Amino acid sequence: MLGILICGHGRFGEGLIEASEMLCGPQPYLQALNIDLSDDLELCGQRLGTQIEAWQPDTDEILCLCDMQGGFPMEVCLVQLPDQKVKIITEATLTLLTYLLVHRNGSQSVQQLVNNALLEAKEAIHVIDPQILFADQRGEES
């Protein structure tokens, strides 16, 4: 089983999990690590290590989804996890997480799963201009 840890500033991880479970239902091996600005790097690393140990031996690999590249949550993952079977993905989104949850028990390798999830997340980003979208309804040309 693939474990997924969401590491982010404040309650980012809890919010992402709550939203994803609205779409995908309750999920095993999905946990948030909330990090505040006043948190100690070593203490956060210990919390992260404790969570990973709690999932052993049931998880083959673990993905750490971080809210932003270069942030403190990513640093916690890098410092704590160099010897673990862990991949870190930054700039986590709801689309990325739901793709991972829906497809993590399939026949894809973890690397294929990550590649497909990243592609899905990138393709889900759009700029929508309501003036153009509703121009036809108002009888305007777009």
How would you characterize the overall build of this protein?
It is built from six helices and four strands; from the N terminus they run βαβαβαβααα. The protein is α/β, with parallel strands linked by helices and 142 residues long. It has a four-stranded parallel sheet with strand order 2-1-3-4, sandwiched between helices. The protein has helices at residues 12-24, 41-55, 72-80, 94-103, 110-123, 130-133, and strands spanning 2-9, 30-35, 61-66, 86-89. Strand 3, helix 3 (72-80) and strand 4 form a beta-alpha-beta unit. The model has no long low-confidence stretch (mean pLDDT 89). Helices cover 46% and strands 17% of the residues. Helix 1 (12-24) crosses helix 4, helix 2 (41-55) packs across helix 3 and helix 4 (94-103) packs antiparallel against helix 5. The protein starts with a strand and ends in a 9-residue tail after the last helix.
At a glance:
The protein is of the alpha/beta class and 142 residues long. The chain has helices at 12-24, 41-55, 72-80, 94-103, 110-123, 130-133, and strands at 2-9, 30-35, 61-66, 86-89. Strand 1, helix 1 and strand 2 (30-35) form a beta-alpha-beta unit.
How would you spell out the order of helices and strands?
EHEHEHEHHH
* 3D shape: globular
Please count the helical segments.
6
Summing up helix and strand content along with how strands pair, one would put the structural category as: alpha/beta
Q: Largest sheet, if any? A: 4 strands, parallel
The Rg value, from CA coordinates, equals: 18 Å
Order of neighbouring strands in the sheet with most strands: 2-1-3-4
What is the share of helical residues? 40-55%
Q: What is the number of E strands?
A: 4
